[in-house]
Write a structure and sequence with these properties.
Residues 1-79 form the GST N-terminal domain. This is Glutathione S-transferase. InterPro entries: Glutathione-S-Trfase_C_sf (IPR036282), Glutathione_S-Trfase (IPR040079), Glutathione_S-Trfase_N (IPR004045), Thioredoxin-like_sf (IPR036249). Pfam families: GST_N_2. The protein is α+β, with helices and mostly antiparallel strands and 217 residues long. It folds into 2 domains: 2-75, Glutaredoxin, CATH 3.40.30.10; 87-189, Glutathione S-transferase Yfyf (Class Pi), Chain A, domain 2, CATH 1.20.1050. 52% of the residues lie in helices and 7% in strands. The chain has a 4-stranded mixed sheet with strand order 2-1-3-4, covered by helices on one side. Helix 1 links the parallel strand 1 (2-5) and strand 2 (26-29). It binds glutathione. Glutathione binds next to helix 3 and helix 4.
């Protein structure tokens, strides 16, 4: 099994789940900025040129949500099965995590990657910060009185749990106490710690918090 990975990116969801499942996996490292994800070689594994991709069982799978579902079905663990009462909740939270990650990706582009800085749009940054706050409030409300997204830890927590560190780069954690406590619980999981130790240092964020007002122009 080989995971195509960038430190700090969505591939950590998969690495974390692999650690929770106790599977062996090689890592192949890529860069978000050197153009290599656009190469024909990488696009043969992931057609949109996106991380993660997982080589497994003689083929490549792309899209973190698909990979996570494939692994839980293959191993028969960490996800409710079709027909289970919590199956619909599982699918909803797995895909919700990607809705939230797409907003985070837009904020990363606005605050960090877009050059020149004068190309950045403050109205779009404000809009995406508000859209992120809607998702954070929804999870914070859902998590009140709960330890995990479902009644027990599942791969949906690997999908969403990975986002939360990034959420608090753009929103104050004091406004979302249940979400902040969930982040702490997820970060304390031994499998998450092992995944981060293997994953390499985050290459995206160079400060703890990004304010829209920090942006020139
Ligand atoms: N929906 C995809 C999104 C993948 C994605 O956008 N990954 C980012 C890293 S977190 C990426 O590869 N970005 C490179 C780019 O946008 O060029 C998934 O969940 O796998």
């Amino acid at each position: 099994m080989r995971l195509h990975h960038v430190p700090g990116s969505r591939s950590i969801r998969v690495l974390w789940l692999i650690e929770e499942l106790g599977l062996n996996c090689e890592l192949q490292l890529w860069s978000l900025t050197d153009g290599s994800l656009r190469s024909a070689g990488f696009r043969a594994l992931s057609p949109a040129g996106r991380i993660p991709a997982l080589e497994i069982d003689g083929r490549a799978i792309f899209e973190s949500a698909a990979i996570v579902q494939y692994l839980t079905e293959r191993e028969g663990r960490l996800a409710p099965k079709p027909g289970d009462e919590e199956r619909a909740d599982f699918l909803s939270w797995v895909n919700f995590a990607e809705t939230q990650a797409n907003i985070l990706q837009a904020l990363n582009i606005h605050h960090i990657f877009l050059r020149p800085e004068s190309a950045r749009s403050i109205p779009l940054m404000r809009l995406d910060t508000k859209r992120l706050a809607v998702t954070a409030r929804a999870v914070d409300t859902h998590l009140q009185g709960r330890e995990t997204l479902l009644t027990t830890f599942s791969a949906a927590d690997c999908m969403l749990g990975f986002n939360i560190e990034a959420v608090f780069r753009f929103l104050p954690f004091a406004d979302y106490p249940a979400l902040a406590a969930y982040r702490d619980r997820m970060q304390a999981r031994p499998a998450y710690r092992r995944a981060l130790a293997r994953a390499g240092d985050d290459v995206i964020y160079d400060r703890d918090f990004y304010e829209v007002s920090d942006v020139p122009g």
